[in-house]
Amino acid sequence: MKKSLLAATLLSLTLPAASHAANVPKKATAQTTLGLYTTAREAWQMLQGDRNAILVDVRDPIEIKFTGFATETDIHVPWMLSAPEKWVEKRQSWGMKKNPDFAQQLQEKLDDLKAGKNSTIIIMCRSGSTRSAPAVNLLAEKGYTNVWTVVDGFEGGKLKQGESKGVRARNGWRNSGLPWSYKVNPAVAWRPASDR
Q: pLDDT at residue 71 above 60?
């Protein structure tokens, strides 16, 4: 019995990707060149199993202010920033603009944490689609090999029926009972270059 438990433990240590592999997302914008996909719950398990794993939140600070922040977050650098001057008629809402300093800011934070090219890096946005995947691809282009995207993101998927239809209240970090708060760790919180 002890030998089979030891063998199972060794196997789980040698195959970490297999135990944390979510399905490939259907949306092309959510797919990455590395093909490493995880759910929020699986990402939590990865962080618990590897104390050197790094969780990166790429959401806009305003978004975090109103929806919360995973307490396990090590790095916060927004991929996109709110652009109140940019109205998007099709969405009937304000637009977003790419953070022009994203690559440099993320690299600086990774360097501060002494992340290597093989370090486990987990990228999370709101729903695992248009921000975490391109951030993963950017790191892959820089030679990082173990970068995961959280396919259900922080807020998760939209409810398909009921009074709250359309609200992001299904799966994701916040809806999976994982640790989060409206308070943001000041040491992790992103600040514009002008505020540093």
A: yes
Summary count for the chain: helices (H), strands (E): 7, 11
pLDDT 10s digits, 152-169 = 999 987 778 888 787 777
Give the integer Cα–Cα distance in Å for 131 and 126. 8
CA nearest neighbour of 41 among 180, 181, 171 = 171
CA distance 136 to 125: 11
Domain ranges of the chain: 19-182
* Gap between the Cα atoms of 154 and 59, Å rounded: 9
Tell me what pLDDT residue 196 has: 59
Exposure on the CB side of residue 70, measured as CA atoms within 13 A: 32
Q: Which CATH number, 3.30.230.10, 3.30.70.3040, 3.40.250.10, 1.10.10.10, labels domain 19-182?
A: 3.40.250.10
